[in-house]
Amino acid sequence: MTTENMIIVGDKFECFAENEGVLTASEALHILKHQLLSDKKIRFKLGQGLSEAQVSQLVKTAQDTGVSNLLEFNETAKSGRNYVHKHQQRNSMLGLPRRICESKFELDIMLDDACDEMGDHVTGHHVQGMVITEAARQAFLTITEAFFLKDNDFSSYFVINTLNSQYTSFMFPLPATIEYEIVEHKEKKAGAHFFDVVMNVVQNGVVCSVVTTSFSTYNAGWLEKKEAAMACNAIKYVVNNEDEQNVAA
């Protein structure tokens, strides 16, 4: 008997789920809960768009109905607030980081379709470019926090110097990985760091996007004072400037 693979994606990817071999999280839960399995040998794989709670519910339902052997996935573990700097877990887009060698790392992309970047709508079959760029931004926060700042006794403030995204192929709501390489790293005074990195977003062996960035980290206590002074200067300029500006009707 041949195995039929089914990929589960978030409900907002309903357009993509119209393709053969794909179903939404709600459809998968309904099938497992009511044991609507055919005589075919089925393996369920995990795509993008599900929350940790949805994945957990699928796993528990499969266990309760005695078909957990049909799932090719288990509970997921995502990078949390300390790594991705997001207060709500639905906005974390990454799994836990893996170090490959001194300068190379990997992270699995784990999108929740309730994240802020997808809160308005999803267009077509693919994942929007800005979602990919945000996942890459979270990647450099995560790698830096997990491997370079973890021993600091102070919190750090990240400053982006450059951020460039190149999109070379559509990324779909399927498993995808960020390959992360540090091109240059300098450690400066008072625990400050400078990084120049390149990130390849890879799906099915194809590079879908290349994101390059240079950024710095500083002691938050030091930079917050400097930022506050700059904010005051910016406010004074606007308050004291009476020039009229052209505004679109």
TrEMBL record:
It comes from the Bacteria. Residues 83-214 form the A-factor biosynthesis hotdog domain. It holds the Pfam family AfsA. InterPro entries: AfsA_hotdog_dom (IPR005509). This is A-factor biosynthesis hotdog domain-containing protein. It comes from Thalassomonas actiniarum.
